[in-house]
Amino acid sequence: MAAFFSSRKIAFALLLSLMVTCNVAADFYRDAEITWGDGRGKIFDSGKTLTLSLDRYSGSGFQSRNQFLFGRFDVQLKLVPGNSAGTVTTFFLSSQGANHDEIDFEFLGNSSGQPYTVHTNVFAQGRGNKEQQFRLWFDPTTNFHTYSIIWNPQRIIFLVDEFPIRVFKNRQAMGIPFPNSQAMRVYSSLWNADDWATQGGRVKTDWNVAPFVASYRNFNINACTPGQCGADSFKTGAWQTQELDAPGRNRLRWVQKNFMIYNYCTDVNRFPQGMPVECKMPRF
Question: Cis omega before residue 81 (within 30°)?
Answer without folding.
Answer: no
